[in-house]
Amino acid sequence: xxxxxxxxxxxxxxxxxxxxxxxxxxxxxxxxxxxxxxxxxxxxxxxxxxxxxxxxxxxxxxxxxxxxxxxxxxxxxxxxxxxxxxxxxxxxxxxxxxxxxxxxxxxxxxxxxxxxxxxxxxxxxxxxxxxxxxxxxxxxxxxxxxxxxxxxxxxxxxxxxxxxxxxxxxxxxxxxxxxxxxxxxxxxxxxxxxxxxxxxxxxxxxxxxxxxxxxxxxxxxxxxxxxxxxxxxxxxxxxxxxxxxxxxxxxxxxxxxxxxxxxxxxxxxxxxxxxxxxxxxxxxxxxxxxxx
Length: 292
Hints:
The chain is of the alpha/beta class. The chain has helices at 25-35, 47-59, 76-86, 102-119, 136-145, 156-161, 170-180, 206-226, 257-280, and strands at residues 3-9, 39-43, 63-68, 91-93, 123-126, 151-153, 183-188, 232-237.
């Protein structure tokens, strides 16, 4: 049976408040567990850190994705070794390179893909600004060259990166659909054409929240149609700290980001449950409302 897991980003647990308040790692992990997340997104470059986090998650029946940011093909090798030692449902790779041409991308993608395949570890390439996948159209050309490439879709970067006008055009919907059709994981954040991270509960942001809910739902449904029965789909709640999070003149955030992360978890699970019911009923709806 296909499985859906909602994770919380440990990076998103950073406060970065003017008063210097931060939760300890132990507090962060306990909060993620007690809030009902299935696991966490964990940076795997530091083996001792990754072991501490994954030991806690494993002891509490939770799982995780391994996050990394290689600048060369060889920089993925220690990450793979860490995953072999500690486990992970997949490696989420942000390609920390900025090739000018598609041809320059080929050695990276082929090298990373070969290393992961040889190790028997699932590899997802994340869509992200200031990375190989920074531009939507360039990424689509990358998919033309590598039609089997598995993406992690963080759609917020393309909405703000290309300044999608409202209402979203049919052309832009079609471009996003191509990303969704090759997405095997999702990172959760809502953007507008001018802001990378909107407050989920503000009334003026509701149209953008509904747009992302529509896209995520479409992505979930497409994944369910193409993925084997034993596959796992992950949705990482990744509401980042300032300067991702908007702040007022006093430097404090305009909303409670931790509460929003838990709301986003509920939203994602609600979408998954709805798509499950619709698929069982043979339906294929375009949009579903979400409540936070």
